[in-house]
Amino acid sequence: MRHAGPGGEHSPQRTAGAVIRAYVALTKPRIIELLLITTIPTMFLAAGGFPSLWLIVATVVGGYLAAGGANTLNMYLDRDIDAKMKRTKNRPLVTGVVTPRAALIFGIVLSIFSSVWLGVLVNWASAALALGAILLYVVFYTMILKRRTSQNIVWGGIAGCMPVLIGWSAVTGTVSWTAVLLFLVIFFWTPPHYWPLAEKFSKDYADAGVPMLPVVAARSNVARQMIMHTVFMVASSLAIIPLGHTGWVYGVSAVAVGAWFLFLVIRYAVRVRRGLTGKKLGPMTVFHGSITYLTLLFVALAIDPFVVL
User: Fold this and answer.
1) pTM of the predicted model, to two decimals?
2) Which reactions is this enzyme annotated as catalysing (predicted)?
3) Are residues 287 and 208 in the same domain?
């Protein structure tokens, strides 16, 4: 049942189920799914097979808690611009299902607990990397970059690259050049993944005063930068092969899915040059294609240690 709030407005439903769903939503579980897709295959590669099940579970849970804490603090800090954007107007802090104070406490608790969890149950190297990822996302991206520069997602995306380092260090206790190259794959993947989404919701970002590149730059400029990042991404994925940790399954897959995604980005650039807009431009085809690319690449990475010829 809804009750009248201040000024005669209706407050949102606060049933137990609605509150639980709101707190889960604060962690942005759909984004976390993508982060975990990169963590587990990296652990398989680092171990040259199956790590212990307990290590996988402990690392995944710790990673989820860390990302959830960072995402919650991101929503707390961005609640003013979320209220101005159609895409985010139903987030819990905008609707009022969760109060800002409660979200702040929840985000801090998750962040601290995740670091302790990883430190005690995995290792302190992974805990330090997770804490670094939280600070990068909350402070470097959300507080400093997001509202100030059109390159926000490029450098702010570093936080999203950290799960591969966490997964590798969870198994080995350190970070290798292979892990660094996987980090670079995701670093260069982030702009051609996110900018098409920003293109689709460019009016939202403009209304909220967030200078995403598709809002402040010509589409042709955005398309050129997407091609550049994609080329570096594919090059980073192929540079892993000579290091000797991967076999033919990963090698063939990296070439195939890299060529396919590069085709999608180049086709997008051609459509931009032809002056197409909206559905004919097809930014969401590139966005969804980027998710497919990363998933297939890391699935191949997970399978590779078990296929020997």
Assistant:
1) 0.91
2) heme b + (2E,6E)-farnesyl diphosphate + H2O = Fe(II)-heme o + diphosphate
3) yes
- Rounded Cα distance between 257 and 176, Å, is 24
- The residue type found at 244 is G
Domain count, the chain: 2
Mean pLDDT of the chain: 92
Nearest to 252 by CA among 289, 214, 303, 206: 303
Enumerate the β-bridge partners of residue 127.
Answer: none
Reported as a pLDDT band with limits 50, 70 and 90, residue 12 is: low
Which of these, 261, 135, 152, 260, lies nearest to 198 by C-alpha position?
152
Q: Which residues of 14-25 are buried (b: 16+ CB within 10 A; e: fewer)?
A: eeeeebeebbeb
Q: How far apart are CA 260 and CA 281, in angstroms?
A: 18
**Bridge partner list, 4:** 10
Q: Which of 162, 171, 165 is nearest to 48 (CA)?
A: 171
At a CB cut-off of 8 Å and minimum separation 6, what does 120 contact? none
124-180 confidence digits (pLDDT tens): 999 999 999 999 999 999 999 999 999 999 998 899 999 999 999 999 999 999 999
3-state SS assignment for residue 52 = coil
Is 225 found in the same domain as 167? Answer: no
Amino acid letter for position 286: V
Q: Do residue 39 and residue 144 come from a single domain?
A: yes
Q: What is the dihedral angle through the alpha carbons of 238, 240, 245, 246, rounded to the nearest 10 degrees?
A: -20
Q: Are residues 209 and 139 in the same domain?
A: no
Structure tokens at 250: 């990963």
Domain around 28: 17-172
Condensed to tens digits (0 to 9), the pLDDT of residues 193-234 reads: 999 999 999 999 999 999 999 999 999 999 999 999 999 999
Whether 186 and 308 share a structural domain? yes
- 90: domain CATH number is 1.10.357
